[in-house]
Amino acid sequence: MSTTGNAATAVDAPPPSPDNPRPRLPSWVTGVLTGSRGPALGLLAMCVVFFIATPYFLTQSNLLNIVDQTAVLGLLALGMTAVIVMGGIDLSVGATLALATMVVGWLSHDQGWPLWLSAVVAIGVAGGCGLANGLGITYTKLPPFIATLAMMSIARGLANVITDGQQIVGFPDWFDNLSTTRFVGVFTACTAVLAALYVAGWAYMRYRSGGRALYAIGGSAEVARLAGIDVKKRTVLVYTVTGLLAGVAGIFLTMRLDSSQPSAGTGYELDTIAAVVIGGASLSGGVGSVTGTLFGVLIIGVLRNGLNLLGVSPFIQQIVIGLVIALAVMLDVLRRRETR
């Protein structure tokens, strides 16, 4: 009888209410789950582990190498942050990057255009891909997943059509040097541009009404529209800027590789989304920050660099990064539960 009574008591327990609130996590745990503190602590812990594991990790040359290697991912993730905060997704950034690399190579080598002008046009073409994404989502009502998936296929196909799938090699030394020559011993031209763009993106998302509007759209597009926010205009603008940033990333990658390759950027869309999610953004929209994304990008960069130094197989690295992404999503679920 006592066993039955206990079971009935457990089943008939009242639901959470103001008088009987459900259990909450400790306040310090909630603090870590919110904002960019969690990713920052995760990055710090990872650096400590690799510092203990290998003496080559915490050297100036290696740390600068990590920053250089994450410049392309950082640019893509900056645009993706705004997209995800707004409640969207962009699967086309890797293919758009590849298209930009092929356009700059084709125009400068085959058409004889000045390299600087070829780069500007390549970035413009990438911006056009982003514009097409935004128009497809807002005016033809395509879901962001489908619209950007279609653009991923189109842009990748165009990147191969331009030179029939052949890579273009051999750029001027001054072009390559922009990604290798360090000013004041620290910044290359690429990393300096990346730092400037992150500062601008952080200020826009935090202090400008347009940036705050993205959070409102991510929370509820209909509520944002009723509040007077031009949701369609903001959506098109965000996807266009994301395309432009993918174009700049394509130019940076061309500098680093000294070549234009139609296969460039394969899988970058997944790494980009992972960096933003690891940085604390929610795929449901309305949550995320440029600061958190920066930590997410560095986490992926440090993780790959450290595993390479330890001689871990690239296939094992994929498994580890997948587990990190799963952990980040689990933390996002906990964060949303605790902030309801």
For the termini, the CA-CA separation is: 39 Å
Strand order of the largest sheet: 1-2
Number of helices: 16
The main pleated sheet reads as:
2 strands, antiparallel
* Amount of beta strand: under 5%
What structural class do the secondary elements suggest? Answer: mainly alpha
Give the low-confidence spans. Answer: 1-13, 28-33
Share of helix, binned:
over 70%
The global form is globular
Please give a quick description of this structure.
The protein is mainly α.
How would you describe the overall organization of this protein?
The protein is an all-alpha fold and 340 residues long. The protein has a domain at 72-273 and 280-287. It is 72% helix and 1% strand. It contains 16 helices and two strands. The protein has helices spanning 2-11, 27-33, 37-53, 60-69, 71-85, 93-110, 115-138, 144-162, 173-177, 189-207, 209-219, 221-226, 231-257, 268-278, 290-309, 314-338, and strands at 168-169, 259-260. Strands 1-2 form a two-stranded antiparallel sheet. Helix 14 crosses helix 15 (290-309). The chain is globular and about 55 Å long. The two termini are 39 Å apart.
